[in-house]
Amino acid sequence: MSASAVHSLWTMAADPIDKIDAPKIEYGQLSPMLIVIGAAVIGVLIEAFVPRKTRYHVQLFVSVVALVAAFAAVVGLAARGFGTTKAHIAAMGAIAVDGPALFLQGTILLAGLVAIFTFAERRLDPEAHGNRVDSFAAQAGSVPGSEGERAATKAGFTTTEVFPLALFAIGGMLVFPAANDLLTLFIALEVFSLPLYLLCALARRKRLMSQEAAVKYFLLGAFASAFTLFGIALLYGYAGSVSYATIANVVEGNVKTIDPALADTMGNDALLLIGVAMVVMGLLFKVGAVPFHMWTPDVYQGAPTPVTGFMAAATKVAAFGALLRLLYVVLPGLRWDWRPVMWGVAIVTMLVGAIVAITQTDIKRLLAYSSIAHAGFILAGVIATTPDGVSSVLFYLAAYSFVTIGAFAVVTLVRDAGGEATHLSKWAGLGRRSPLVAAVFAVFLLAFAGIPLTSGFTGKFAVFKAAADGGAGALVVIGVLSSAIAAFFYIRVIVLMFFSEPKADGPTVAVPSPLTMTAIGVGVAVTLVLGVAPQYFLDLAGQAGVFVR
Amino acid sequence: MNPVNYLYLASLLFAIGATGVLIRRNAIVVFMCIELMLNACNLALVAFSRMHGNLDGQIIAFFTMVVAAAEVVVGLAIIVSLFRSRHSASVDDASLMKL
Description:
The complex is a heterodimer of chains A (about 550) and B (about 100).
Chain A: H1 3-10, H2 31-49, H3 52-79, E1 88-90, E2 95-97, H4 99-119, H5 147-154, H6 162-175, H7 182-200, H8 207-239, H9 244-251, H10 269-287, H11 295-302, H12 305-330, H13 335-358, H14 363-383, H15 387-413, E3 414-416, E4 419-420, H16 430-433, H17 435-449, H18 455-469, H19 473-498, E5 508-509, H20 514-532, H21 535-543
Antiparallel strand pairs in A: 1-2, 3-4, 3-5
Helix pairs in contact in A: 2-3, 2-6, 3-4, 4-6, 4-12, 4-15, 4-20, 6-7, 6-12, 7-8, 7-12, 8-9, 8-10, 8-11, 10-12, 11-12, 11-14, 12-14, 12-15, 13-14, 13-19, 14-15, 14-18, 14-19, 15-17, 15-18, 15-20, 15-21, 17-19, 17-20, 18-19, 18-20
Chain B: H1 4-23, H2 27-52, H3 56-86
């Protein structure tokens, strides 16, 4: 018997393995994300191979080029109609390329670019041993106040890793509002959160506070993302798939034939409701809505101020984008269940943000509570469940992000011997000492308060109008009331700056480089343009307000 | 055995992890409890994958493992730097910023 014949006694020929089709990836349509994440990887290589002296310039150059190129790619995609008529789902169902995604990606990229400018600022702190220093620790690994830290400062080390970290965060944020299945959503959430945890820990001054903020942000953020993941698991059990379209079909009861063996899970409403609650909880944590807001004031206060500005603006844009897509694409069939809950969340968010802000004495904590109140206003637009609701939220996010980055950039300028003078009492009489800085900050505060002729007014008007049309009139009344409460503490800061006597040992205002000036200038320009002539941008947001499914 | 039992086990592990996060005071232990929650998610995903007869859940479980590893890298770096500057990893001691 031949060898093969013996072999055939106990084996048989298997069917030839079917060919596995290579996945079809539309690289062109994913180019904004690919450019940013590619540049972040290049940034890591720069840290490894470029000499320390030139790293700062190379990193800054690579980051700015990448963000501008990615923004150009977004504009190109929008111009080719991917935002409106050609909107579709790319990368085998993982990423949506549609109006809201492109609009929010453009916003995140511009906000990220402006934030990178504030990251790169090196003229605010006095020079240390003849080296210009930025807002970040000389060497993050050194113990605060130790010999190692002094040696690192003396040697002129700077943490140029902040540039690739920021790019990774921006890359995750670009994917987050475009994610079209729950797995992509979760991975994007982690990709933008992990770099932010690290960035929070890197302050040059007040390092203990900065590290404390990072630990709090990390532990609470990881806790929240564990909830998100369990929610994802339950939704997967409910629908048998993590793709948004499939889950939406099961939610709406369009799937007729349910396998009897799956009677316990598929279409089980308990899984759906608990799963949705847990996923939404994770997203509300990221936007800083009450009752998941506890981390916001501490992290905003402890993090280096440029990082705070970046985080406050870009995270909110990305997280609201993901929340909108989840509620509008996956769960419209469940809106009678989620709308009442979101009503409650929006109301407490607006009220708690506005009322607690009154008692704050630190400018960064004040802005943190103000950002909580703004999350409540944006939620009012989310609750509308109308096309106007989507476009008003898009507009509000774009307007709000530039004001926020500008306001935090102004906070970096007001300094005393210990670094930034963030206590409100130090800001007394700032208008007498440096009228320009105080006037710019007053513009930002008026925009936060929603005074007409600023972007804040247009945005608030848009979301409240959408909410009222969507049948949430009572919510609008509470929103206007809490805007009035919030206006009180914004105006109080303006009064403090302009109508009180400057103290003898008050802070000085540093003269920034063109980088920070650009950030503040862009903030003021966007605030005024969106306030005075918003029509073009409202139309843009209106056209972008249709999700692909 | 009925795969639903694995879901009960996963929920139980998740609840134990969440309770640990809320009541333990050492940052490292809190972090281990978060990892326990992630592993509970993995168990639930794999159980659902078995029930539905498709592989999505198992693939997500692999992604979760990678995410958990990345989280360990970042989290331990932050917690160790906090420990080195304070000589304590207690989350109660870290209270510079209170109203």
